[in-house]
Amino acid sequence: MSTGPRTGPDAGSLRLPRSTAVGPGRGRQPRLLIDAPAGSSQIYLHGAHLTSWVPRGGREVVFTSRQAVFDGATAIRGGVPLCLPWFTTGVDGLQRPSHGWGRLRPWVLRSVEQERDGSVRVLLGLEHDGLSLLYVVHVGHELELTLSLRNTGREPREIEAALHTYLAVGDVTAVEVTGLEGATYSDGVEGTRGNTQVGALRISGPTDRVYSSQGPVTVRDPAGGRQILVTGSNAPSTVVWNPWRSGAAAMADMADEEFASMLCVESAAVREHARLLGPGESTTLGTRVEVLALSD
Question: What are the catalytic residues (predicted)?
Fold first, then answer.
């Protein structure tokens, strides 16, 4: 075991496994590097933002834009942003900043442990605005993310949360998304609600859908030579998003052509599935991401 610094609002030190290290990443922002027998990853303490996951013997599964901004203030484009305690502008449409403050705050690295199976378990925490947050990132042959939120205030709170996972794909125009058939959804592009998914979903333009479904959802990526399975846990919403070329062109932190190499499939609890937490009450949601062969 080696000793590394605890980087965050409180001082101290943290024991780290030999397979991990804390040091400056892009923009010299504090980052946890993981290179374990079961997989590798990068997690920035700004937003508790995972920007890479590679299962051992595999390829990168998470998309992060080459134009993403790493300045400790701006949300990182790609990876797995934590959207909380509201999604977009909230249930009432009045909340700012968009997607909440969870992905913009510095989180505290509380523990890092290597498991016997060669995976690494990371625990991060944040206390802010009457909420106590714990986030477990389990990096191995599969990626498991678990987010817990507790209301430490004196009044009830309506909470939305999303694990906004950007998946790396070979060609989004050839991708087939299954597991959402028959689910109802709202369409942010068309501005409609109460739609029903018929058959597999294929991406042929800007896509912004919130499904009443927690999967499992399979992203079949023939250009990438694999399938990616996303399974929500206590996450009754699934968000599917791609900005297409027009949307990417409007983003300074995403290259125009990068839309073709990513697709967001997010496990969430948003909109009609928002959680009402009384004082002292808590809620948890999670997601599991795994890579399968095309033939599976």
Answer: 164, 266
Domain that holds residue 18: 2-292
Amino acid occupying residue 253: D
Tokens of 202: 């294929």
What count of other Cβ atoms lies within 10 Å of the Cβ of residue 216?
Answer: 15
Q: How many domains does the chain have?
A: 1
188 has pLDDT over 90? yes
Contact predicate 189/208, CB 8 Å? yes
CATH of the domain at 254: 2.70.98.10
Residue 56 near residue 118, CB atoms below 8 Å? yes
Q: Which residues are catalytic?
A: 164, 266
Please identify which residue in the block is written with the tokens 């947050």: 133
Instruction: Give the span between the Cα atoms of 143 and 110, in whole angstroms.
Output: 19
CA dist 102 and 182 (Å) reads 32
pLDDT tens figures, 80-129: 999 999 999 999 999 999 999 999 999 999 999 999 999 999 999 999 99
The one-letter amino acid code at 244 reads W
149: part of which helix (H) or strand (E)?
strand 143-151
Q: What is the DSSP letter of 6?
A: -
88, two tokens? 């977009």
Task: Reduce the secondary structure of 186-217 to three states and give it as a string.
Answer: EECCCCEEEEECCCCEECCCCEEEEECCCCCE
Q: What pLDDT score does 160 carry?
A: 98
What the block records as the tokens of 259 is 């839309």
